[in-house]
Amino acid sequence: MSVFDAVVGQPRALAVLQRAVADARRDPPGSGMTHAWLFTGPPGSGRSVAARTFAAALVCPDGGCGHCSECHTAMLGSHADVDHISTEAMTISVDTARNLVLEAATAPSVARWRVIVLEDADRLTEQANNALLKSLEEPTPHTVWLLCAPSMEDLLPTIRSRCRHVVLTTPTTADVTRHLIDRDGVDEAMAAFAARASMGHIGRARGLARDENARITRAATLSLPVNVGTLGTALLSARELVEAAVERGAERTKGVDETERVELARGMGVENPERPPAWARSDFKRLKDSQEKRRKRATIDELDRDLQDLLAFYRDVLVVQVGGRVSLVNAESLPNVEKVAHRAQPEATMHAMEAILDAREKITAYVTPLLAVEELVLALRAS
Ligand SMILES: [Zn+2]
Predict the structure, then answer these.
(1) Checking phi first, is residue 114 left (phi over 0); if not, alpha (psi -120 to 50) or beta?
(2) CA of 6 to the centre of ligand 1 (A)
(3) Res. 62 pLDDT band, cuts 50 70 90
(4) Phi-psi bin for 344: left (phi > 0), alpha (psi -120 to 50), beta?
(5) 23 C-alpha to ligand 1 centroid (Å)
(6) What's the CA-to-centroid distance between 4 and ligand 1, angstroms?
(7) I want to staple 3 with a disulfide (CB 3.0 to 4.6 A). Which of 12, 30, 64, 325 is the partner?
(8) Ligand 1 centre and the CA of 182: distance in Å?
(9) Cα(61) to centroid of ligand 1, in Å?
(10) CA 21 to CA 104: how far, in whole Å?
(11) What pLDDT is attached to residue 229?
């Protein structure tokens, strides 16, 4: 067993990381090891898992055995020498970055390395980027930075040029299926379904395998193309889709919102965060505004996932229409796929896919979600 077993289907990245771990254990460390790393890969490819397993392997006395307490605490983010920063916020502020830089300047307490895992490094503000730069330019011995971002371009060139690059790719359906069976104890049929339906997004696959509500939501989204018959049902479907996404977005951020409110109240000596006194109101207002932004972002993420599911549905429709031999993402919805396939021509399906891409773009550009989705269902009706 190795802590790297948690990484799904990334043979090339693993080879680099395992060599780095071996070199990190030498004195002085070999050339496979360096003090700044950048993990990139599409959403769901497992950037943060890869970074955390690497962190664990660096602080484990056995180079990542996967079962000692060092490995466990490093993976959970509670190891004394592993800092793990992730955010639901839109940006990572210069203050946060400065604190990390201070943290990075201290020597490790129990392990040989101090490791800072910074997820969402693409959300560093320009100032935060610059604050970090200093630490990357003049590294403290035995400090290792592990930055995660969707792509290289998400970071300033000055930062990325100082990092060794680890590229993760979307794992195959077979890799995800195997992982769900072996690591999560999911039964074979469910694992195969979740891997296929998630299109290689591991977190999503795990959610679908474990959570019946996630499966119900997905099924509801996929019934949309057969429910756009009349103008009334089409607009109703649009509204339901958006409302469900808003609800899930709020659900996702509820916990952290509450914690922040309680912490702010404690810090300011306010007794009741629900009814702050006049002198504290502007601080609470500011917090509320930033939480609202975060909730919006979460809603957009949820909605975008729905649209990706819809896109895969129409891709399946196209496969059926042209008699393609590739396997369907939505094999379990074959009756619906066929219904839509027989209703229209491939050209119309292409239009539908374009309309979905268009809606995704609009939503991420902060067009009011309901407007964008209403426009989408009207386009789907026409196709
Ligand atoms: Zn270990």
Answers:
(1) beta
(2) 13
(3) very high
(4) beta
(5) 17
(6) 11
(7) 64
(8) 20
(9) 6
(10) 19
(11) 82
